[in-house]
Amino acid sequence: MAVQEVRVMNLPQLGDSRGKSLLYEIRTALNITCINKVLTAKVYRLEGISAEDADFLARELLFEQVFQVYSVNEPIIKDSDELVEVAYKPGVMNPEVASILKAAADLGVTGLLAADSSHEYGFYGSFSKKELNKILSRLLVNETVERVIIEKPATLLIEGQAGSTEIVPIRFMDDELLMKLSKDKLFLNLEEMRTIAAYFKQIGRDPTDCEIETLAQTWSEHCGHKTFKSKLIVNGQTKQPLLKRLQESTANANHPLVLSAFKDNSGVIAFYDGLALCGKVETHNSPSAIEPYGGAMTGSGGVFRDIMGTGKGAKVIASTDMFCFAPPDTPQEDIPAGCLHPGYLFRRVVAGVRDYGNRMGIPTNNGSVHFHRDFRAKPTIIVGAYGIMPAGAAQKGSPLAGDIAVILGGRTGKDGIHGATFSSGEMTHRTMNVNSSAVQIGNAIEEKRLSDALLIARDEDLIRAITDCGAGGFASAFGEMGQDIGVEIQLDRAPLKYSGLAPWEIWLSESQERMALAVPPEKLDRLLQICRDHNVEATAIGKFTGSGKLEVFYGDKCVCNLDMDFLHNGLPNRTMIAKRKKLNRETKEPCCPAANWAAVCTEMMRHLNVCSKEPIVRVYDHGVQGSNVLPPFAGVTGKAPNDAVVLAPVLGKKYGAVIAHGMNPVLNTIDPYAGSIWAATEAVSNAVAVGANPDDLVLIDNFIWPYPDEESLYDLDRAVDACTDFVQATGMPFISGKDSLSSTYRSADGSVIKIPPVLCVSCFGRINDITTTISSDFKNVNGRIYLVGRRDIKQMGGSTYFDITDSFSPDVPLVDVKQFRQTIASLHQACTSGAVQSCHDISEGGLLAALAEMCFGGNMGISIDIPGDNRADYFLFNETAGCFIVELTSGANPEEVFKETRFLQLGHTTTQLDFTVNQDGKKLFEVNLGLLFEAWQKPMKEVFGA
Question: I need a labelling partner for 575 at 20 to 30 A (CA). Which of 31, 407, 745, 794 fits?
Fold first, then answer.
């Protein structure tokens, strides 16, 4: 059938925002100045209909008459010096296609067999072929998932015969052949490969490719958490596994709000009025490293489905994002082979999170961005989600024999294959080519429909058990759901995006927007009707059996028959060795600024780890559900960053939820124990600073670590010790978590780049009265300002100040956790009594940054006094977590308010927009807040062209 082409572009007089954005990147990121203009057009290809029908769809569906023009089967950009079309490769899921097909049918256009969309770019100027190729390779074409269209395709249909099931002769392989089989795809070690071979020798046959891939997925680091379950020998001492320590610390805390911890897709706590809150934070580092837009999108989509698949199903009420990149201006020659530039990664990751959350109608309202040179080979991409559900639906369900195995949502394709195993291995210069199939492009609209249907099914009690098809696809979802009972799956019933997939590919595919359910047989028809009403595809593809086996069929052929016990418990126990590394750097302290205070202060405020992230936050719709009580920015100027988000998820009620987090990778490179205590302290401080009760808070851990060699494992062991010590001292338990232990890059010559170890601690809980929420902006002129909390200002290691002065110290801020617990209890009492008008915790940038941000929001200045026996620069720039800047009401007595903790009166706010610092009765320096504000906003404006 003929392929019709529709092209759409903006009216010339209205401008082309996409083209302008690309032109900005060409000039700033690539330093190519000979391009004068870029015009863009959207190309739609429609197969199986007439040109007249294509024209009808263009008019009624594909263009907006108010500001666009279109053409059918002819060019629309006609005078450019070079015209290039960029499209997804065949087989890469284009999220627009399903919507086009559905909308065409709704409009009465029949016969539309296939559709696709792409972009055309018209370049104007005197440029060379080399410069154009540089633009394409660096900015427009990610060869993992995209291609340049050279000629119009004859067909859009992807056809093929189903691949055969292969037998893998593992019983006859020696060690060399076993490891050759494992390399690039399975990521299993020799002992694990030998165990698999021994199993099949015992049962007297060789495995199918489906069976070997299922074992590799289930035993992957990503799914099996092998390092966290291993016995450890640390400097010669045997210690309990990391995961067991975390779980035992939570059990010992015995927190009264916890309903489910470490058992389900997310952790759950009691809320109010018979409701529950749940939270989960995930990583999507490896996919984002090779295709940042799709990787970030599917990271958000995946963690949303974790919430949707908790208990009997929850509604997603919030999204968070925490990123780590190399500086966006890193020279291209410093980027390792096979890796994308961090500036490109940064912008595309933000776009991916933006598009998924905004399109689903989920507010993204808490996050952070951190920078360090050693993220240049692999970024850290953390995304979180939080949900609400009836407390009675909060416990993880278990299928019964005879229940129907149902798949809901998106169709299955080749996208995401080997995602779980790929995410468990180191990156190399070959990663972009070898693991391209691990990349996916998400479809937020599909997931929104899926979410709506599931909530109705939950409320009608149609779901026995539910989980998402995440890493490992059907293999993980049904394999885990049927672990204790057995399951039989018929793969040929699974809806496919296109033909030609081998059975093992259908089984392992990580195509997005899919949920797996166990449904009682008598309730299946009603579930299917709900799905039809919501335009959600639902298919019964098997049943739970009671056999204790995983049985997978394609037609009448059994392609996988594994004992559940071996699949889930056959992984060899490991004992791992951890050894302490030595810091080779010598202590080097900076000289006190003396004559150039203003220059140092502006440099501090423009530092990438301190500067405003507003251009990122503003592209997220953080108020979409109408629940946002405390937004990311506040104050009379709307520029003061708040420490946490407060939501009112049940409209009309005074109670709410609070979400915060903390992380500091730089500290972990020096002292992973102190850095991890800092992260947990920062997370809780952020929540308490906005009015949360410490007794109503719980934690989530995310460990993103280099591949665990002996030194990295030692650091990880110390980080887990920090977490358990924090729980013991504060009573706040970790109720969910994730480890991602593959953030190492190994080049062709054997050189290694390890990321700074990342522990992200997220904190969430409940607030009984949202009207008592505290924002960070100063409220009153001549308001009294206090520093609350304990700190040792000589502990400057890992600080922003030491970074800009090229200094070093092993003495990083070490929080006294017991004292911190008393501090936050006192602060919360002060907040509930009405004594606190403004509050902001101290983190990167120290006292200077925190005070300046509060001034920006209140549109006022400040004058502070530094005690005479303190080194002024250390007093201003120390970054000890667990300390707060507090503005008290005029009638509050600080001696009474803070009688249980340390405090110091710093000074007062002023009408003069200056930051004034005095010491020993003399003015030490004064810097205009306008200069600090400009420096604070400039870096991200430059990155995003704001």
Answer: 745
